[in-house]
């Protein structure tokens, strides 16, 4: 169901916004869902991003998020400023899932509620046959100042190249 060409290494991230549930008010962020412009968030930073089909789904909860939580210190030691998890869920679900995964203050759990950003990346997927509608493909990428430097997209149903270990090895 991809509607645009898939993003590639060397491409700038598309314009878009993501929502995050903020637990504690600070600065310009109020408690609750806050919407952020991707270009603003990535400017001048190195971001490890991983996308996945859905919060609370088996592989995502048992392997994908826990891997990035476990290797977060190593990723940051290798130059990563922030780690983002992007899923086609709302900010409330992503916030609750982040708490459940013990990812709070480690991985930013970013909601792409209508799959707009996933579509703009060309990494959307139709999971309608499973009753889940349009979702994100499973992937990881390293983004430096808004430009994709590494990109690892899984083949359908696989979990082999978008894990934290692969992205960490690519940083070496």
TrEMBL record:
Domain Thioredoxin: residue ranges: 7-172
UniProt entry tagged with the keyword Oxidoreductase: yes
One Pfam family in the UniProt entry: Redoxin
Active site residues of this protein: 60
Keywords: Antioxidant, Oxidoreductase, Peroxidase, Redox-active center
InterPro entries: PRX5-like, Redoxin, Thioredoxin-like_sf, Thioredoxin_domain
Catalytic activity: a hydroperoxide + 2 glutathione = an alcohol + glutathione disulfide + H2O
Cellular component terms per the entry's GO annotation: cytoplasm
UniProt GO MF annotations: thioredoxin peroxidase activity
One of the protein's GO biological processes: cell redox homeostasis
Enzyme Commission number(s) from the entry: 1.11.1.27
Primary role: Thiol-specific peroxidase that catalyzes the reduction of hydrogen peroxide and organic hydroperoxides to water and alcohols, respectively. Plays a role in cell protection against oxidative stress by detoxifying peroxides.
Family stated for the protein in its record: Belongs to the peroxiredoxin family. Prx5 subfamily.
Protein name: Glutathione-dependent peroxiredoxin
Source organism of the structure: Solimicrobium silvestre
